[in-house]
Amino acid sequence: MRNILITGGAGFIGSHLSERLLKEGNKVFIIDNFNDYYDPNIKRNNVEEVKKTCLENNISSENYIVFEGDIRDNNFLKEVFTNKIDSIMHLAAMAGVRPSIEDPTLYYDVNITGTVNILERCRENNVKQFVYASSSSVYGNNEKVPFAEVDRVDNPISPYAATKKSGELLCHTYHHLFDMNIACLRFFTVYGPRQRPDLAINKFTRLILEDKEIPFYGDGTTSRDYTYVEDIVEGIVSSINYVNRDESVFEIFNIGGDKTVSLTEMVEIIEDVLGKKAKINRLPMQPGDVNRTCADISYSKKMLGYNPKTTFKEGIKKFIAWKLK
Ligand SMILES: NC(=O)c1ccc[n+]([C@@H]2O[C@H](COP(=O)([O-])OP(=O)(O)OC[C@H]3O[C@@H](n4cnc5c(N)ncnc54)[C@H](O)[C@@H]3O)[C@@H](O)[C@H]2O)c1
Questions:
Q1: Is 18 helix (H, G, I), strand (E, B) or coil?
Q2: Of 163, 168, 216, 248, which residue has the fewest beta carbons closer than 10 angstroms?
């Protein structure tokens, strides 16, 4: 059994990861401040779902410990770190591109200062295995596709992307100075059950079901490399195992899906699975949004054995089945 701390553990990705790690026999500590970026009841419900999974799988409730607090609060973090922790998955962040333009200071505080705080507590407590949630948004509007880890990422186009790139730089610094083993994972648009309500797939599905217009930004050719949440969790678990080694490692991995899907295709697939047409409200492109994301996953395949299995249509079917429950 390993003791694994997940920051942001009550969120969309964190709750799925908690379930997976608990089922594999680990002890999971989560930190979350249950903020109102989206309805905190959704996060509390995610925690309840994890507890239910524990019950159903005969996992002791002592293996799932929830710490409610903020990663900007060092006294709180010092308390959490009195527990023995083997590895960390640092997911807690203000996620979301467009709101970062409205409140860049908050994004800076949580995503950069919060990350330094967690790295500092690792240094103090000799926690050497660290996985960081970065984002495909660090690639900005790079022309070269697919995006590879070795490409330049010096031109972020939103404060959110800039904070994620900064987090990667801090991770490298702590690896260099304090010999921490670190993997930075660039997630490509994640979807599936419990997806954040602000993300397009969830929002569009909700609006179509409510017979309301969906905001359709641009001409429909913008595209995303969508990644099903189980595939993301697989990539995270492989990375947690990867940093658990004696020699010193620092790596950046793309954790993407199997192919790129345009906005038009995405809406058509949701319509098809729901059996209902969307009412489309055409709007201009939003500032901060990139034109496309497209992951080159050959390096993660080689180093982690990462191999996303869920096609977009299958993933949407699973998402909609959850949504209609
Ligand atoms: N979902 C995606 O498509 C996607 C894509 C790329 C990167 N990411 C990154 O993955 C991570 C998880 O994303 P998610 O979609 O699960 O988001 P989420 O918002 O559902 O989860 C993040 C969790 O962190 C918590 N949190 C935020 N600020 C905190 C603070 N100051 N202290 C303690 N907890 C705090 C939130 O309450 C939330 O539960 C984020 O770092 C995000 O930037 C997500």
A1: helix
A2: 248
The CA-to-CA distance between both ends of the chain, in Å, stands at: 34
pLDDT tens string 106-135: 999 999 999 999 999 999 999 999 999 999
- Which residue's C-alpha comes closest to atom 23 of ligand 1? 8
Side chain identity at 301, as an amino acid letter? K
Q: From the CB of 190, is ligand 1 less than 6 Å away?
A: yes
Q: Which two tokens stand for residue 101?
A: 């333009």
C-alpha span between 46 and 73 (Å, rounded): 23
Q: Which pair of tokens denotes residue 51?
A: 């507890």
Burial class (CB within 10 angstroms; exposed 0-12, middle 13-18, buried 19+) of 324: exposed
Ligand 1 centroid to Cα of residue 111, in Å, is: 10
CB 32 near ligand 1, within 6 Å:
yes
Q: How confident is the model at residue 237 (pLDDT cuts 50, 70, 90)?
A: very high
For residue 284, what is the DSSP state?
P
Residue nearest to atom 25 of ligand 1 (CA): 8
Q: What is the mean pLDDT of the chain?
A: 97
Name the CA dihedral angle for 223, 7, 156, 308, rounded to a multiple of 10 degrees: -30
- Write out the catalytic residue numbers: 160
pLDDT tens-digit series, residues 37-83: 999 999 999 999 999 999 999 999 999 999 999 999 999 999 999 99
The length of the chain in residues reads 325
Distance CA 15, CA 11 (A): 6
Under 8 Å between Cβ of 257 and 309: no
Query: How far is the C-alpha of 6 from the C-alpha of 14, rounded, in Å?
Result: 7
Ligand 1 centroid vs 277 CA: distance in angstroms?
31
Q: Which amino acid, residue 279?
A: K
pTM of this structure? 0.98
d(CA 230, CA 295): 17
If one counts every other C-beta atom within 10 angstroms of the C-beta of residue 125, the result is 16
